[in-house]
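Entry:
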Amino acid sequence: MSGLKLPPRLRMDGARAAWAQMSPALRAEAAQVLAAAGREVRLSAASLKDFDSSALSLLLSAARQCSEQGATLKLDDAPDKLRELARVYGVAELLWAPQQPAAGG
């Protein structure tokens, strides 16, 4: 499990600085994951409490960066409010894979 975590606060005024800090760590983590024959870069959103739509922008950038390196971003412990915000903006499927129906029949 990686040590990448979102900060507790992620709003417009601090998003650029958060991305500047997170991007190199994300790039390094993706390289490590791929070197170990993995595909998923895990990012914890457990501590994220205070956020706005700029959090979605940062997450979409993170997902794109991982994709460019051949990895997939997996967001863990996302707050319900973040999931709802993603649904409202129409980007939920870009951050979370749609739930697969159970195979059967």
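The two ends are 35 Å apart (CA to CA).
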